Amino acid sequence: MPAGVGSSVLQRVTKPKTHKGKKVLLDREPKVIENTKQIFFVKGAKTTPELQECLKDIYTLKKPDAKILRNRNHITPFEDATPLEGFGKKFNANHFMMISNNKKRPNNLVIGRLFEHTLMDMVEFGVENYMSLNSFKNEKIATGIKPMLVFQGELFENNSEFGRIKNLLVDMFHREDVEQIRLQGLEHVLSFTAHDNCILFRSYKTLLKKSGTRIPRIELQEIGPRMDLRIRRIKLATDDLFKQACKKPKVLKEKKKKNITEDTFGSTLARVHLGVQKLDTIQTRKMKGLKKTTAEKKRKAAEDLDNSQKKAKVSNVTITEA
Predict the structure, then answer these.
(1) In which band, very low, low, confident or very high, does the pLDDT at 17 lie, cut at 50, 70 and 90?
(2) pTM of the entire structure?
């Protein structure tokens, strides 16, 4: 579609001519369990070496679920996000990150996400006090490691905008779902601290030290990158659109089980309803050591004889009265 044409114009739908093209189109169709979310990185018309290094560092943390564009693009996302939506559809990506630099907004970093190839949320930051990965001379993490995200600060809980930014960051650094976790695999920590309209971004590697017990002692070693993200502009989706994006398919919703609850410690508690039990007919003694003694048998026989005699007397009285 030529540049400048609105998205309302119908695009030509072409059938795939190769098996690879058909496979790509099938992979882009909606699924009950979606693929791992992808992110693409864009350079603006003007950048700085510091911003480019920052972009490469975050790209390193996101590999292999990332795509970086080498050419520069004259894009102003807050005025027209159509080019970013086109890139998202081309690469089948849900998130984007763009860097730019100008006199009005130096060291500018824009983070956003798409929903159905349409802009959903977008936040503009100013990068301050940046230190790259290469500035920290220590061992780095392996590619594709799932990070542990730590959010500190009351603003993430009490402020609605910071809460949406937290949701955006969790969504961006989220990788594939796993059912089991290995302790040695938890080696990367991303820390976000909210303080006075700024988010402090830190990256650590966990070190498992000997503690004399089965549980190791945990130490954090900063590996970079490090930066302070000053919030400049925010463009958030409406509540209805956000609710629609968070909607789960009925297939994935867990069916509520009756009379089953879970306490704060994770233990499953169940309530079982039983009918009236006939205690007279229940067989309770099957062990030899629990058998009735001879004295108990004689006492039981005497009680049964007395009960039968009493019933006979009552029946005789009723007959004479009649």
Answers:
(1) confident
(2) 0.72
